Amino acid sequence: MPNQRSQRAKPKRRTEAEWRQIFIDQENSNLTQRAYCHENGIILSTYYNWRQRINNTPAQNKRQQTKPATDLFIEVPVQPHTQIPPSLLEQWKIELDLGDGICLRLSKTQ
Known about the structure:
- The chain is of the alpha+beta class.
- The chain is built from seven helices and two strands, in the order αααααααββ.
- The chain is elongated, with a radius of gyration of 25 Å.
- Strand 1 (92-99) and strand 2 form a beta hairpin.
- A two-stranded antiparallel sheet has the order 1-2.
- The protein has one domain (12-108).
- The chain has helices spanning 4-7, 16-29, 33-40, 44-55, 59-63, 69-72, 86-89; strands spanning 92-99, 102-108.
């Protein structure tokens, strides 16, 4: 009787780029990670291991995936020497959210 283990196909070896595409495809599939892996013949623990490996890559590798800061900058024209009356400033509650717990909120007080 042949050994069952020898009859099983070896899991496909994928490159990092292929795994990145798998993660994108899974997110766009509207399936859970478990369901996506099941439908695509991916071992769930391997999926999680690669997800963690890619998420823990050095910052210089991640930098290549993000937009340069210049794409995120919007210049706002400001008129120099504009005086804002103190009564107007008192009507506004202003906060600035830059991410990581830093917040920008502009709200007019009652």
